[in-house]
């Protein structure tokens, strides 16, 4: 009976350690990212950052490079074909 409890304890400890080493930190990062959106000040700050980036990109002569233009054009054509059908 003592061996059984020892083995169960070892298995539980190994599962907990594996969780904390592998996916635990990623889940914490995701939780922290989501919690940023709960706060109104954080949402306002994110919106301001997006606005500033848009303004900065609008001041450039070229927003897209040639490869991006081709990809976006193909995407738009494909979307138009899907809406026609």
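Q: What amino acid sequence fits the structure above?
A:
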């Amino acid at each position: 009976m003592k061996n059984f409890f020892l083995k169960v304890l070892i298995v539980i400890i190994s599962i907990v350690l594996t969780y904390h080493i592998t996916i635990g930190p990623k889940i914490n990062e995701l939780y922290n990212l989501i919690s940023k959106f709960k706060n109104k000040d954080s949402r306002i700050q994110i919106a301001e950052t997006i606005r500033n980036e848009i303004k900065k990109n609008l001041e450039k002569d070229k927003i897209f490079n040639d490869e991006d233009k081709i990809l976006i054009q193909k995407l738009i054509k494909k979307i138009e074909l899907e809406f026609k059908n």
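Q: And what stands out in the fold?
A: Residues 2-21 form the longest helix (20 residues).
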